[in-house]
Amino acid sequence: MDYILGRLTPRVKVLEEFESHNREMAALIGTGYAEGTLDRFTITINHLREFIKIKFNRVDMEFADLDLAFIKDFEFYLRTGRNNKKANKMSKADIAILGKLEKEIQLIKEKYNIRTA
User: Fold this and answer.
1) Which of 66, 87, 90, 97 gives 70 a disulfide partner, CB atoms 3.0 to 4.6 angstroms apart?
2) In 10 A of CB 31, how many CB atoms?
């Protein structure tokens, strides 16, 4: 009842929304998206899933829990937290995806009227 009356905001999950985005993108390959773009987003969601598990000991997170610190921590993780020789050398695509992720977080928070705690 609280949700219907607007006293609760929907519990939109980050990875669920990201997976939905990737499914939509997959359907649009060749008509606006390249397969390489989907590959980069798939890699990013895998890193994000791992980051959330390691840093927060969760399977997913709500958008309400995300803030600028989350983005900065995720960027730091991408640069240092992976056992990868290239971890400190983020590509332009990695940086672009971080920027898009930050914008998507803001858009989804606005769409569902989610306030950061």
Assistant:
1) 66
2) 6
- Give the phi and the psi of residue 108 in degrees, each rounded to 5: -70, -40
4: part of which helix (H) or strand (E)?
A: none
Q: Kindly report, residue by residue over 63-88, the tens digit of the pLDDT.
A: 888 888 888 888 888 878 665 555 55
The model's pLDDT over 13-30, given as tens digits with 9 standing for 90+, comes to: 889 988 988 898 899 888
Cβ-Cβ contacts under 8 Å for 62 (sequence gap 6 or more): 11, 12, 13, 14, 114
Return the domain boundaries, the chain. 14-111
Query: How many CB atoms sit inside 10 A of residue 50's CB?
Result: 13
